[in-house]
Write a structure and sequence with these properties.
Layout lengths: L9 H11 L10 E5 L6 H11 L5 E5 L8 H12 L12 H10 L10 H26 L5 H5 L11 H7 L7 H12 L6 H12 L4 H25 L6 E6 L6 H17 L7 E7 L27 H6 L12 E5 L5 H11 L7 H8 L3 H17 L4 H4 L33 H9 L5 H10 L5 H6 L8 H13 L3 E2 L31 E2 L1 H13 L8 H14 L4 H13 L3 H14 L3 H12 L19 H12 L1 H6 L1 H13 L14 H12 L6 H9 L6
Helix pairs in contact: 3-10, 3-11, 4-7, 4-8, 4-10, 5-7, 13-14, 13-15, 14-15, 17-21, 18-20, 22-23, 23-25, 24-25, 24-28, 25-28, 26-28, 28-29, 29-30
Length: about 700
């Protein structure tokens, strides 16, 4: 049993149960594909579904953990898992598949010129396989343990070659005569002698021609599905059998599923009833999953959220008539965790770190693997070292053991490459893990592109011109396919606490109506950390990159989006005086307070080179609230005199926009300063006092 139930999968479980429940009549089943960016908990979710399905026939296969195998070899391993004997249930047998595997295995050559001899040789091979199985069982006992059956792709079965062993364990308690009669009848698809089909299969198995190899896979995978249909026709079942396929974007994953879908399509066109096999697969690359076209979505696929997904939704999406087989796939994207779900993880870790939940969620935006890393780090700082809020502001500089996708912890002595980032700072280790499937050039380019508010603006501004052509051609495609581009978070008061509520979105200009993809906030944060470590004036430094972006926005046709983004990068370059001058002029010029607030938040969302006060030897860290006056005076000496309240407000919002400036408790530390500055501005003439006072209330503590 899993040690814990994964968080945030309630709707995935609901969808799984809807698809698994066996209806009254024949029905099609989707290839349910769970998409998720690296670290989103795909494997953990899949194993939890396997636990929920463990009282019915089920099998697990990970395409990433084994040498690539042909589709019929994958089917054979799944058949072994599905044939595991469950209490008080009839075992699922695979006579057609077992006979076919025996025919194609190395060492068995049938004489096509002598049908009688070929029949005798086949029957003798079947008896030998059955006898070998019985001898093995008497000596070693029946194979027990779902764990063994769930890891068939990595466990070496004892005894004879693997294919024969798979045949053997499909045979127990099944008479040879039944195996012969059932299997031979199914393979006999011609008016010739019944044994001819098996002899033909035997000949195809010895050929290396691509068409012959494909035909062997098609026949054996078809036999696999036919055995399942036959079992369910003879035994009343309340649940479909389940196969769980991890990492189908690894080699051969799609090959197996494409063949499965093609066989289903042929069966449906021939009037054969649907097979009782629910496939649940996972992928980190959306380009590896076919699905109906949906512009603006990752890889332009129709991807559903867990809350949207249902069996009925999949059925309604089926085109009539269907011109392709893409409708048979149903991609659903795993979501990030909510703050209460992160709190549950914290409670499971240690009650002493629950108070840090708002900080952890605000930093990671609920990315599951990253939230666990931050929880481990918080535990190390708070419990093991007795640290407090000041130490937590430097949380990304610490280097705790990192959780792997399977729930274990790096540094456990395995010596695997997963431990490579064990002693790195948390932000560096996160970059290594999250982007390990990108090339070195792509990772370096992504650090530079993180400076742009939107990813497209970074590309359009020419930031990739210094990189090789392959990087320029593939970077956007690959990060989009790996689901790292997300819709922009609305910028408003609530964004300073996590997700913006969007109450100012009505102020968005017409040219801004189409949202552009932005980097996932957590990924962007750790990339900006890397950018800040470069020489600021170097070719890939903070000053150079933000200057290039600011100047590009200034050169573009001047609509409001480009004007605000130019000021956004000006603020990233510490040009606080210019930003305050613009907002002071707009304070009475814009038609409404909401329009002014929209510009205020859009500009102050700019990243900061040093958001957390650098530690001084022997001195206590200055708090964010203590830094507001210092920064306002140092960066905007002129505005600090002429527009004191506005300068303080802009500086406080700029600091508050970066989650690294948050303290661990619920109420952000800068809220009182921000509320006070809004009250001061509301007292000015022509200020739109009502709107400013309403905004101040958003930052005031509530019971």
């Amino acid at each position: 049993m899993p040690t814990e139930r994964p968080q945030g999968v309630k709707d995935i479980v609901r969808l799984f149960n809807e698809c698994r429940a066996r209806g009254q009549g024949d029905r099609e089943l989707p290839v349910l594909t769970l998409l998720g960016r690296r670290g989103s908990g795909k494997t953990t979710t899949l194993r939890w579904l396997g636990y929920l399905a463990s009282n019915r026939p089920n099998a697990f296969y990970d395409f990433a953990s084994a040498v690539p195998k042909r589709p019929h070899e994958v089917a054979a391993r799944l058949a072994l898992g599905l044939s595991y004997r469950l209490p008080r249930q009839p075992a699922v047998h695979f006579p057609r598949l077992a006979l076919g595997l025996l025919v194609v295995r190395a060492g068995l050559t049938l004489d096509s010129a002598d049908a009688r001899r070929a029949r005798a040789e086949l029957k003798r091979a079947l008896r030998q396989a059955k006898e070998s199985t019985e001898v093995y069982e008497r000596a070693n006992g029946v194979i027990e343990g779902v764990g063994l059956l769930q890891d068939l792709n990595v466990v070496q079965l004892p005894g004879l070659d693997l294919v024969l062993k798979l045949v053997q364990f499909s045979l127990p308690k099944l008479p040879v005569t039944v195996m012969w009669r059932t299997g031979l009848t199914w393979y006999n698809d011609s008016p010739n002698r019944p044994v001819d089909a098996l002899m033909k299969l035997n000949e195809l198995a010895g050929s290396e021609a691509p068409a012959d190899v494909a035909e062997v896979d098609r026949l054996l995978c078809g036999a696999f599905l036919a055995d399942l249909r036959d079992h369910y026709a003879r035994h009343q079942r309340d649940k479909e059998c389940v196969v769980l396929l991890d990492n189908i974007d690894a080699p051969q994953g799609r090959t197996f599923l494409d063949l499965l879908v093609r066989i289903r399509e042929v069966n449906a066109s021939s009037g054969v009833e649907g097979d009782p096999l629910l496939v649940v697969a996972t992928a980190a690359n959306a380009l590896s999953v076919p699905a109906p076209y949906a512009p603006g979505s990752p890889a332009e696929l129709r991807i559903r959220t867990p809350e949207q997904a249902s069996y009925a939704d999949w059925q309604e999406s089926i085109p009539r008539p269907a011109s392709t087989t893409k409708w048979r796939w149903y991609p659903v994207q795993l979501r990030d965790l909510t703050e209460p779900e992160v709190a549950t993880l914290a409670e499971q870790a240690a009650s002493a770190v629950v108070h840090a939940t708002p900080l952890i969620h605000r930093l990671s935006y609920g990315h599951p693997w990253s939230a666990r890393c931050l929880l481990d780090t918080t535990y190390a700082i708070v419990v093991e070292r007795g640290g407090g809020a000041a130490e937590l502001r430097h949380i990304l500089e610490h280097s705790p053991p990192l959780p792997r996708a399977d729930g274990t912890t790096a540094g456990s002595g395995t010596g695997s490459s997963a431990d490579a980032g064990e002693h790195a700072a948390l932000d560096e280790a996160a970059r290594q893990y999250l982007l390990c499937d990108l090339t070195e050039g792509q990772r370096a380019a992504l650090v530079v592109c993180s400076a742009g508010r939107t990813f497209d603006s970074a590309v359009d501004a020419g930031l990739l011109e210094e990189y090789d052509q392959l990087t320029k051609d593939t970077l956007r495609r690959d990060i989009d396919a790996r689901l790292w581009l997300v819709p922009p978070v609305p910028e408003d008061a609530n964004t300073r606490g996590g997700q913006g509520s969007g109450y100012l979105e009505h102020c968005r200009a017409p040219e801004e109506s189409e949202p552009t993809g932005v980097l996932h906030p957590w990924l962007r944060l750790v990339l900006l950390q890397a950018l800040a470590r470069h020489d600021p004036e170097g070719p890939s430094g903070w000053v150079t990159i933000h200057t290039a972006l600011r100047d590009w926005h200034r050169r573009e046709p001047q609509n409001r989006r480009h004007r605000l983004d130019a000021l956004y990068h000006s603020l990233a370059l510490n040009d606080l005086d210019q930003v305050v001058a613009h907002l002071a002029a707009q304070f009475t010029r814009l038609p409404s307070t909401d329009e002014w607030l929209y510009e205020l938040y859009a500009i102050t969302a700019a990243p900061m080179l040093l958001p957390v006060a650098p530690r001084q030897g022997g001195e206590r860290d200055s708090s964010p609230s203590g830094r507001v006056r210092e920064l306002a005076r140092d960066l905007a000496p002129e505005a600090f005199v002429t527009h004191w309240a506005l300068t303080m407000l802009v500086t406080a919002l700029w600091l508050a926009a970066d989650p690294r400036n948050r303290v661990a408790h619920t109420t952000p530390e800068l809220n009182s300063t921000i509320a006070a500055m809004f009250h001061t501005l509301a007292a000015l003439p022509h200020s739109g006092a009502a709107g400013l006072l309403r905004e101040a209330e958003r930052y005031e503590p509530r019971p």
